[in-house]
Amino acid sequence: MVLWVIFSLLVAALPVYGDGDPGADRLNPATARIFENPQPDQSARILTELEQAGTGKIGNFPRPWKPSWTGQGNWHYPFDMTLWIVIGIAILCGIGMVASIRGIASVLADEAAIRLETMALITGDLMPGEKNKRLKKIKRKGMGLRLKLASFTIALVLAVVVIVANPLYVLMTRTQEETLLQGLWDRSTVLMEGLASNARAHLSSRNILEMALLPDQISSVPETNYVTISGFSPGGTIFDDHIWATNDPDIKSKINTADFQPGVSLITDVLTPKLAAFTSEMDDSALKAVGNIHYSITSLIEEERFLAPRTDTASLRHIQDIQVSVRELEIRLAERLTEVARDIRSEPHFSTKHVDRSKGTTFIFYRAILFRQGAENVYFRGLIRLEVSIDSIIAQIAEGKRSLLRIIQVVALTAILIGILGAFTLATLIIRPIKKLLAHVERIRDTDDKAKLAGVDIDIKTHDEIAVLGNTINDMTHGLVNAALASQDLTIGKEVQKKFIPLEIDHEGNKLSSGFKDTRNVQFFGYYEGAQGVSGDYFDYQDLDGRYFAIIKCDVAGKGIPAALIMIQVATMFLNYCKQWKPTEKGFHIEEVVYQINGFIETLAFKGRFAAFTLALFDSETGIIRFCNAGDNIIHIYDASAKKMKTITLPQTPATGVLPNFVVESKGGYTVQTLTIGRGDMLLLYTDGIEEAKRKFRDASFKEILCTEGPNDSPHTNHVSGQGNEALGADRVEAIINAVMNRELYTLSKYHTGEGEGVLQFDFSSCKGTVEETIMALVSVEKMFRLYKSPQADENSRIPVDKKVDSFLKLHFRQYRNYCSQTRENPGNDAYMYYTHVQEDEQYDDLTIVGIYRK
Questions:
Q1: Which GO terms describe its cellular component (predicted)?
Q2: pTM for the whole structure
Q3: Which end of the chain is more exposed for a tag (fewer CB within 10 A), N or C?
């Protein structure tokens, strides 16, 4: 709408002044009327009149007034997945940093704990098994301390690197991506602005030659594939998408003519379905932006035509003013159309923030060409299509990411290497004295002969608790050496004790654990496995004249040197008797040697010391055995005809060394009892070490427990409730012997064991029923009775085993692979080996067994 002021005076005679012009104050009063400029087919309408001097506001004001302040609507945070991932990684790395710092602190605490535990190991009053467990625990901690410290330090460095590098990587890659995409958009915008400016001029004049040169401008944007400029047909002025210029290599597949003809060929592509709406939208936007400028220009041109015939000065001046106004209005209209046409769009949607590969890598940017043509109130005249490819941008982004990753990796690797070097250096400084200490303690543990540790000291140069601990260990080592030197006398005593027992001898002259003698009518086999230290168990069999054999089995009460001395004296007197024996009536009175032994021991007056033994004279031709016992009145015979064991009880007599001979005689004295064994029968003499072998009760965690089956002291199988262990027992011993002699399967059931049912099976079907097999079966089953497989046992849990026992178990023990497959050599004794990864209850008494088999 244009408002015109028509004054009552003639236009030519009406003076017009601006603010501050001279003479403005001399204006004559006049009347002004304001009319609404009508459309060509409408009459004018008076809006208002201004009487006398006044101010009128003339113009088009379609927009209603709005206040400058407005309420803020709901604001939504944009969701950025990458940002949240970075935040999540940073939080996780922060947690990792805290955990690593706490881990390093725990390592330092462990180092202090190892010192305290090592001190407790050396100075504490622990059982040997507990000391071994504690040593393994300390070793495990000590060996793992360096790794833990290094691991936590590396984790800390990694966490710091990730926390710094991750957001930096994301920020830099995102910045590069946005910069490249925005750069492409900006360069494409400038290119299309230049193309639109030139196209407006050449399209309106239909200059095909100049239009054909425009596509060459795309060389300034390397990502551009082609540009296509379309507009109206040669005979029209309304846009209908006829191509005027293009360098699209695939244009023939998009036009309706066989060959491209400028201004004639009509294009059809992905934009075609959208052009109708886009054209309408652009025209509407142009009309709103231009407003009444178009009508103003038209009215002024009409007025110029009306005044054109006049030649007076005022009319000519007015025509010039109209021409100036028209040019100004046309410039203003062109500026507004240019502003509207700057709305560049893309198909598919192009984002300057990130690359969306789901939309492909090729985009068509397009914008309108708007200009005024004649008196038409339509402005959309042409369209610029610019196809761009972001493949090169994607390649640049990928290369940038790779370069950045390489830099981050180099920095991270350098930081990690420095961290590893520092961690291992620090850990070495902390761990080296502890490892040195543990190695020395292990050497002490693994050296059976502690006398060999003489001169072996540990030298720790630090001035802290470890150095004090090292000096303590050195003092302990010196004490062990002195104790070992003192105990060598006991070891020699034990070897001397074994000299009196008929055992086999190895290549170095040392007595082994078993002895065997085979004659025409009889076989002898004996086994001796001593407990700790020296003791008083003893057996012997002597060939008197080829027919008669003297046999003794002795058990001296107590342990130690006194028991060994008594045992040696008994053995000496027995050997003297055998040397003087003759097959006369006096020679058959074997009770005389028993009185001699009793008298000698009684005169020694050892408090609480006595010897219980069985003495026998065996006629191998007839099978007659004469027994004389002193406090040991139980003998065991396997009856081949009945195929079972028999237990025979001899008259009760006092053990030797308890009463003087005259008192013994007053109570009936030592008497001789005669028995006969048939061919194939076997006489077995053994001390209580086999029947009284014990194992402790344990729960599923292998902790020692008491039997809780029923009220206290109530019977439960072979023991009573409230008891903490069970003995092998006479019944099991008898069952083992019967199974061997009858070539049967023997099942050993252990009660209250942490291993589940506790059932072990021994297959004796391949046995031949020899005396050696019988005694080895007893010894082997007794070994497995005390042995158990604990989860706490490892390669350092070493159980010494006689190699003869291992060979027997390998043949007859069905669970051998489960219990006995992991072994180690015993460098201190070739006759023995070690079972590992198992444990055993302590052997409290000697195993002393002798068997006589009549052929």
A1: membrane
A2: 0.53
A3: C
